[in-house]
Structures are given as C-alpha cells and as structure tokens.
Design a protein that fits this description.
The chain is built from 14 helices and 25 strands. The chain has 486 residues and is α+β, with helices and mostly antiparallel strands.
Length: 486
C-alpha cells in the first residue's frame, strides 16, 4: 500500500501550517495581495467582488431598518479626538497623524514635508468616525422630533497595526460604521440588539458562517460603551474571529460630544447612542471557515459568480459554435438572476479547471462537442468535488440550479456548524479549562460565569493565550466562552 499523500493545489495544507495555508489560498484564488504601503493590502477584482456582494446585501438590510448612508471626512481634527479620552484610549497607539500640507525638495532633491507647511493643528486619519459624526449629530439634533437619527458610512479606516495579515488585520481596511441616536435607553438598547442580529443574519444566511451571539465581558467591552454585543465564529484551526460588534454607549458619548436635545417636557436631555461595524476581515473569516487544501470554497450568495463555464475545445472543432453554445447558457442563467463566468481564454483546459477550483467557484460547468450535440452540459459542485459530477440538459440545469446553490450554502453552513459544535468543550472550573488547553485543546471552552470572579483568571488567560470571547445569549448570560483568537 502506498503512503504517498494525495496531491493538493495548496501547499502547505491546513494541517501542516494553517497560517501559511491561509495566505496561499488568497494568492491561489487571486483575491488580494500585499501593497507597497506597509501593512496595507490591494484587494484584487475577485476579492473585491466578494466585498461588493457583502456590502450590497447588508446595505439593503439596514435600509429596511431606516438607516441612511452618509459620508464624513477622512481627516479628523485632533481636538475632536481629545474630547473623548476613554474612546480615544482604545486607538491612540494605532493613529496615523497628518502634520504637513505640502512636500518640498531639499538641496539633494529629496522630497519631504515642507517646514513652512506645518499644520497649526494635526489631523488624525480616521481609525473610526464616532467623533466627527458625533459633531454633526450635535448640530443636526435639536429636538426630540429629530430622533431617532440613524446614519451609516461605507468607507476606509486606518489603524497602524504592528503585525498584519491580509483581510484579517491590515493598517488600512474597508468597513461600514453605523452611528445611531435615540431619545432614551430603550431605543438605544433595542437598536444595538437589532443591529447585532442583522450582522448574524448576514454572516449566516449569506456567507454560510455559523456564529455565536453574545455579550462581551466588562473587560472586553468597547472603551466608553455600556454594553458590547458580538458575533464570534470558529475558524478551522479552532481559533475565534470576532466577526462584527454592536455597542450601546448610553449617554456617555453624547455628553462628551454634546448631542443634546429639547425633550418632550421642554427640558434638555442627552441622546442615547449606538455604534456598530463590520469590516473586510469577515472575508478572512469566510476563507478560514470554508477553504480546503485545494483552495477557496465560495458560499454561493456572496460568490463573484456562482457558476463558471469551461468550453472543452479540440483542435479540429468549430470553436465559435461551441463558444456560442456556452454564451447561450450564460444568457439563460442571467435571465434567472444568476451570474455565470465563461472562461474563453487560450489557457489549457486543466489550468482552467484548477483555476476555478482554487477560486472556489460554487458550480463548475464543462461543455464539449458531445454536450453541444446533445443539448446538455456537465456540472460539478465545488463543495462536493468530482463525486458530484453530473450531465443533464441545459433546461434541467437552469431549472434546478437555484436549489443546487441553496443546497451548497446549507452544506457549507452545516459542515462549519458541526465543526464548531464538535470543538466546543464544557467544563465546570477554571482549573479544568486550563488543563484542557495545556493538553492541546483547539477550539472553544464554555464555563460558568462565576470563573470571571476567580483571582487566577488573568494568569490562566495569559499562560494559555486565550480570552473571554462572549457570554452567549443562548445561555442567558450564565456562561462564558473562552478561546484563542485572531
């Protein structure tokens, strides 16, 4: 019997070196690459198309919740950041600062900031926009009639990270940040709960990534917030990735920035605010949850194109007739709202097939002379591989494709959910949890909430490189989930 390992498209495999596997999947799928700017990434068209689909779906969801999009400046006055000391404390070490407004060449011809062009007050390149959006809210809100005010911004932000990794943690990244203001506590609390559920719906129903909904412990709560809610996903190496957060600020932020209004009794009150955000790191989560040793496996509902079509050409064959047959399939799929990509390049057929496998195209279609003559096509599901290969008529394929794509989504979700459930350990004490991790446990550990009060907790967290991820809603706040995290 041969002990030779099966050939895979990605080297190393997940088991051999998960962090390097992750980088190689991104490269093989042609999703992104490192940029000349330290710690920043270039999101290539295939990767950006995923972000566009995430953005499109979530933007539709929040507009149904009466949230309006706006845009605010990239540069934030230093004085704005100074107003909210507790808030800024969480970002101070990561802030990039603009100090000059002109370049000038020295006697050697080397460009640098012009000494005469130093700004009177430096600007911060936004690490988040609470302060500058709050400044506008303070001017726009005068009466209870102006509330609620619900704003969202799709933009880039910059946090000068020391250790970076594409999608997961880069100095510049894309996100959305929502900032809502309400008359009272009830409106704010309900809003930050609704927004978290919107995130969970997006990640589970579109990206096929199962998440744990929960509340952050006091130590992990966002600086200046009263409550931080989170969705936590488990990667295939057992680590957690915080996929989105929603914060209830109470009156804290409004008091620091001056968001006050005339209340219904004629007096003056401060608004209750929330903030919530999701970034391109969710793409990294999707890669690490679904990818395999042959590359990416795209969830159909955010895939740049759910169907890839490969014409199988022979030298003596009428190439244009076959391509026209393939284009007709593309058109039929477009008519039912499904995008298909026809690879009519001059690349070799095996290279085209492996290209689509590495990109994770949900359904690969192969069409040769026999299929064209018979009015059929052959298709393969990426999540199941060659065992799912099937030939059918074009009409049958078009009819059943929507349910096939739904089944791919459900299969990916169940596979990831089963993995998370099987790697969730439950223990009664802090000592039992420490023993588990020292014995090599990869995954989450659920404990009673009482461990948060134990004096040894910080030592156990530090020694085992774990943190409290959340207090899951499913247990009514009586348990805490710990894990290693990105």
């Amino acid at each position: 019997m041969s002990n030779k390992k099966p050939r895979t498209a990605i080297t190393p495999t997940r088991d051999e070196d998960f962090p390097e596997w992750y980088q190689q999947v991104i490269k093989a799928a042609d999703m992104a690459e490192n940029s000349p700017v330290r710690g920043c990434m270039i999101i290539k068209p295939y990767g950006y198309a995923v972000w566009e689909n995430i953005q499109k779906n979530f933007d539709s969801m929040i507009k149904d919740m009466d949230v309006d999009n706006a845009y605010f400046p990239l540069l934030i006055p230093m004085e704005f950041m100074s107003r909210e000391a507790e808030h800024v404390d969480g970002f101070a070490k990561e802030c990039a600062v603009v100090t000059h407004h002109r370049l000038e060449a020295d006697e050697n011809g080397k460009l640098g900031p012009a000494p005469s062009a130093k700004l009177e007050e430096p600007y911060i390149i936004r690490p988040t926009s609470e302060t500058i959006i709050g400044d506008s809210m303070a001017r726009w809100v005068q009466s209870y009639r102006d509330l609620p005010l619900k704003l969202n911004q799709w933009c880039n932000v910059m946090r000068w990270e020391l250790r970076t990794r594409i999608f997961l943690r880069t100095s510049e990244f894309l996100w959305q940040e929502g900032h809502n203001a309400f008359e009272g506590e009830q409106g704010g609390v309900e809003d930050h709960e609704k927004m978290l559920e919107a995130y969970a719906t997006l990640v589970e129903d579109y990206m096929a990534v199962p998440v744990i909904r929960g509340k952050k412990t006091p130590e992990e709560t966002f600086p200046g917030a009263i409550s931080t809610l989170t969705i936590e996903a488990m990667m295939q190496d057992g680590k957690a990735l915080q996929s989105a957060t929603s914060h209830y600020m109470g009156e804290n932020f409004a008091k620091s920035i001056g968001i006050k209004y005339q209340n219904r009794e004629g007096g003056e009150s401060f608004a209750h605010t929330t903030s919530w955000g999701l970034s391109t790191r969710t793409i990294g989560a999707m890669i690490m949850v679904h990818g395999d040793d042959d590359g990416m496996v795209m969830p159909p509902r955010v895939a740049p194109y759910p169907v890839g079509i490969i014409p199988i050409l022979r030298d003596d064959q009428d190439k244009e007739a076959l391509l026209e047959y393939c284009r007709d399939v593309v058109a039929k799929l477009k008519n039912i709202g499904i995008r298909a990509k026809l690879d009519d390049s001059d690349s070799r057929t095996p290279d085209k097939m492996w290209g689509m496998i590495k990109k994770g195209v949900p359904v690969r279609v192969e069409i040769g002379a026999r299929e064209m003559e018979e009015g059929t096509l052959t298709h393969v599901r990426r999540d199941l591989g060659r065992d799912s290969k099937e030939t059918c008529s074009v009409a049958d394929f078009v009819t059943k494709l929507p349910s096939v794509l739904d089944d791919i989504h459900d299969t990916l979700y169940k596979r990831a959910k089963d993995f998370m459930d099987s790697n969730m350990a439950e223990v009664k004490t802090l000592g039992e949890m420490e023993t588990l991790y020292k014995d090599g446990h990869k995954g989450f550990v659920k404990t009673p909430i009482s461990v948060l009060k134990e004096s040894d907790l910080q030592r156990v967290e530090k020694d085992n490189a774990i943190t409290a991820r959340c207090m899951p809603f499913s247990d009514n706040g009586q348990t805490v989930i710990f894990g290693k995290a990105y």
